[in-house]
Prior knowledge:
Elements: E1 3-5, H1 15-26, H2 30-33, H3 35-46, H4 52-60, H5 62-65, H6 69-80, H7 86-91, E2 97-103, H8 104-114, E3 117-121, E4 123-124, E5 129-130, H9 140-145
Parallel strand pairs: 1-2, 2-3
Antiparallel strand pairs: 4-5
Amino acid sequence: MNVYDFDGTIYPTDCSIDFGFWCMNHHPKMWFTFFPHIVKCFVKYKLGKMPNYRLQRELFKYLMLVDDFDVQIERFWDKNRNRIAPWYLEQKRSDDLIISASPTCIIKPIANRLGVRCMATEFDRKHGVFLKKREKGDSPLWLTFGFGYKGDRPLSPGWRIRLCLVGNK
């Protein structure tokens, strides 16, 4: 089995952000209702008045605002599947595992299309909350795998990482 990071490796950018802009473009009222809120959150974060875990929660709240989420995520991947790195498609295996800090509801549809498994951040779209405890400084990816923020431990006992990819390298 090979394990690959999704955002920034197999997929060239952050699919959560791309999908957020997709949703705002397909639901233009979000530009007036959601986007200003996120700008305020970023300002608070930069001023040190909002912790990272809270910023992440606020960012992912757009997933609650899309009433036709299932339709939009399929359309998004219809249009963006061609952005998957060609080098990955050439060597993809059915036992691959793609990992991502993006929510599972965004990653799972593309993983299914690729015929691979995925591990991603569990986010409850109905209630707008992460399903695992968030701590100051924790990223969703670290929580998904149970890593400590400063830890650099294997995904599972006995696993070894053979190659670490950065970007398209």
